[in-house]
Backbone:
């Protein structure tokens, strides 16, 4: 068990470009979460999957954001037409049922 | 709307001291509470999970308590070490079916001075 894996660890992009982050959860975990964290703040919930179904979305997840979890395995989070306000750490977590969450190392996005 | 507050925002202690970090939440209808550690630029490491029916959990030098009715949790760290220096975050999950989002505090930044 290698834990939750996220890729890339750091992405620098220009405003208006699209970016995609990938998360590989702990293999037996059926639940997967995305959070966003800005400097000095706690993580904020973005969205949640149970297997392949996206069951919960935050109002923070504007229509420029889309997340998928095909086949209930890895997940991707895509941000279209990035804005400077999207600069943040994007954290993925997984869990078995509503239990303990295990987070990855995060993907840091810098929008220039 | 659930709000989670962590006081103090920062804490500096000499090595070897015992210390307590505080977490308070406004809505006592929680399913569980989890404490995390975060090193600079890194993800979150789970420390302890307390279910709403539990009063405390222990792991090594760490002990977390939960008083749901008063909306408070504490994380006790015994015999602090420089390697304990990090930001400590607490998060609560709401009770009831259908919501799995954690609400986090802003964290307490701990510095343990050798």
Residues:
């Amino acid at each position: 068990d290698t834990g939750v894996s996220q890729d890339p660890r750091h992405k620098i992009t220009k405003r208006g470009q699209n970016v995609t982050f990938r998360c590989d959860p702990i293999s037996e975990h059926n639940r997967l979460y995305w959070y966003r964290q800005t400097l000095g703040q706690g993580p904020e919930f973005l969205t949640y999957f149970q297997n392949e179904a996206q069951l919960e979305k935050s109002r923070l997840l504007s229509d420029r954001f889309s997340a998928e979890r095909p086949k209930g395995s890895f997940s991707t989070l895509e941000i279209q037409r990035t804005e400077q306000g999207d600069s943040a750490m994007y954290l993925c977590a997984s869990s078995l049922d509503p239990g303990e969450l295990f987070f990855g190392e995060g993907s840091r996005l810098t929008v220039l | 709307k659930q709000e989670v507050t962590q006081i103090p925002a920062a804490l500096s202690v000499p090595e070897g001291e015992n210390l307590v970090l505080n977490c308070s939440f406004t809505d006592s209808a929680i399913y569980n509470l989890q404490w995390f550690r975060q090193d600079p630029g890194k993800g979150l490491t789970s420390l302890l999970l307390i279910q709403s029916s539990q009063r405390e959990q222990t792991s090594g030098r760490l002990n977390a308590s939960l008083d749901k009715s008063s909306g408070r949790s504490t994380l006790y760290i015994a015999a602090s070490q420089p390697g304990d220096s990090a930001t400590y975050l607490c998060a609560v999950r709401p009770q009831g079916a259908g919501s799995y989002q954690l609400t986090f505090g802003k964290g307490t930044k701990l510095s343990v001075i050798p």
